[in-house]
Design a protein that fits this description.
It contains 2 helices and 23 strands. The protein is mainly beta. The chain has an 8-stranded antiparallel beta barrel. Strands 2, 5, 9, 10 and 11 form a 5-stranded mixed sheet that branches. The chain has a 4-stranded antiparallel sheet with strand order 1-3-8-6.
Length: 267
């Protein structure tokens, strides 16, 4: 009887040890040996260093073991940029391993999300790329988390690209401006540094090289009406020139009307 109690305590202790390593949505370490499962149905990863490592658990730790996973995505061209490094491999004694995803030139695909967040007069710009990994049915454990939906996110770093001409004659400034411009290191996102003497603005050139994504952004403040938002913006690119058609320069009391901002991209 004492021996049975002792063995039960060992099993419970082992389960507690493994569950403390990662928060999971199902039990991983039970059932047939060398069955596998992801730890969660959804995960978020910050993109850095050119790869993402997604944890996987198996039901035993005896011997070496490997199995394939498949990568899928609904975004156009994603599976050309995100690539699995190979099958998931467990060494003898290992109950946890990783599916490694390498990624390439992000400028060749469009993010599902472009987030622009003001920080004082600057802006932080983030991108998000949804992808999924799936374990084959014959390899999945009783916890049955065979698929994980991954949101790969990136906070962009920018580098200076000098000054460019911004024609705001039919826009907010009513004149031609000389403005400082920056470009993200990993993709086609540009930042205009305080073009109207106040807030910086950012925009994305899509993978087609012709379309601009410009979310609503506050360009600065009007002394009488407060924050002025460039809203309902559509944009195009042609021969290195970005044309932004502004639906309205809006304030809380209404709108100053529409306009056009034309930016010459750096060479």
């Amino acid at each position: 009887m004492k021996k049975n109690i002792f063995n039960c305590l060992l099993i419970v202790g082992a389960l507690l040890f493994f569950s403390s390593c990662d928060k999971t949505e199902g039990a991983l370490y039970s059932g047939e040996p060398n069955k596998v499962s992801f730890f969660n149905k959804t995960m978020k990863f910050n993109m850095e260093g050119g790869s993402i490592s997604v944890p996987v658990g198996r039901t035993s730790t005896t011997g070496d073991f490997s199995f394939p996973v498949t990568l899928s995505a609904t975004g156009a061209g994603y599976t050309n940029i995100f690539k699995l490094a190979g099958p998931v491999q467990f060494g003898s004694g290992e109950g946890k391993s990783y599916a490694k995803i390498n990624y390439g030139d992000l400028s060749k695909i469009d993010p599902s999300t472009l987030s622009i967040s003001p920080t004082n007069k600057d802006v932080a710009v983030g991108l998000a790329f949804p992808i999924s990994l799936t374990i084959p049915d014959e390899n999945v454990s009783s916890s049955n988390i065979k698929k994980v939906d991954i949101m790969a996110t990136s906070i962009l770093e920018f580098e200076d690209k000098g000054n460019v001409t911004m024609n705001s004659t039919d826009g907010w400034a009513g004149k031609v401006l000389n403005v400082k411009i920056q470009k993200a290191k990993t993709t086609s996102v540009y930042k205009l540094v305080s073009p109207f003497g106040e807030n910086s603005l950012a925009f994305l050139i899509k993978a087609d090289g012709k379309t601009v994504v410009f979310p609503n952004q506050v360009l600065g403040n009007d002394p009488d009406y407060g924050a002025v938002t460039m809203s309902d913006v559509t944009g195009t690119v042609s021969n290195g020139v970005v044309t932004l058609n502004i639906g309205g320069y809006r304030v809380s009391a209404g709108s100053f009307g529409s306009g056009t901002e034309i930016i010459n991209l750096p060479k």
